[in-house]
Amino acid sequence: MRRIGVLALQGDFAEHLRALARCGVEAVEVRRPGELDGVAGLILPGGESTTMGMLMERFGLLERIRTRAHQGMAVWGTCAGMILLAKEIVGSQQPRLGLMDITVERNAYGRQIESFEAPLAVKRIEGGPITGVFIRAPVIRAVGPQCEVLAEHGKQPVLVQQGGWLAGSFHPELTDDLRLHEYFAGLAGGHRA
Q: How many CB atoms lie within 10 A of CB 26?
């Protein structure tokens, strides 16, 4: 079984670890560059993207993740993790991976009190809509030609894919639906136990 790492510097990494375990995938916490060795995929969780970016830079993770991603490691960013994957962030020069051909705007869906859930039809995911949990969520303002839009909410992209890289505005780890985690495990070459 191949292993999937979850960036565990800050944010809701524990929920992703639990979801992966429920999928039968070996999941490991990643805090240092050496912990990326042997992982087929990496999840960047929701949290505070500026803090996560600064910690990734401080611990030498930014360049190591970029290198591994370009060597074929699958990467999935949810909420703050999506911000870290974006090439462009509206009004911000914060540290980021800059891997995906998207422009995002932080907290564009509103403040914490304006959080909401919405059903999302997702390309390549069978079994009906998934529930998108949007908490201080970023908006995808532009999608470049290298990215495919997999889901929208109100005609706004909320889930995109670029090869083995996936980015979403919402938190699938906060629901009992494991389909997106299973999909990512497939991108990472993982399989059910």
A: 17
Catalytic, 48? Answer no
Note the pLDDT of residue 193: 26
Query: Has 79 been annotated as catalytic?
Result: yes
Total structural domains within the chain = 1
Q: Which of 16, 153, 171, 181 is catalytic?
A: 171
**At 48, which CATH number?**
3.40.50.880
Element (H, E) at 180: helix 179-187
Average pLDDT over residues 35-60: 94
Q: Which tens digit of pLDDT belongs to each residue from 69-112?
A: 999 999 999 999 999 999 999 988 889 999 999 999 987 666 66
193 is a domain residue: no
Catalytic residue, chosen from 79, 105, 147, 182, is 79
Cβ count near 25 (within 10 Å): 25
Q: Burial, 57: exposed, middle or buried (Cβ in 10 Å; 0-12, 13-18, 19+)?
A: middle
What would the pLDDT profile of 4-24 be if each residue is shown by its tens digit? 999 999 988 999 999 999 999
Residue 74 pairs with which residues in a beta bridge? 41
192 in a structural domain:
no
Q: What is the pTM of this model?
A: 0.94
Whole-angstrom distance, CA of residue 126 vs CA of residue 80 = 26
Show Cβ contacts of residue 70 under 8 Å, excluding neighbours closer than 6 positions. Answer: none
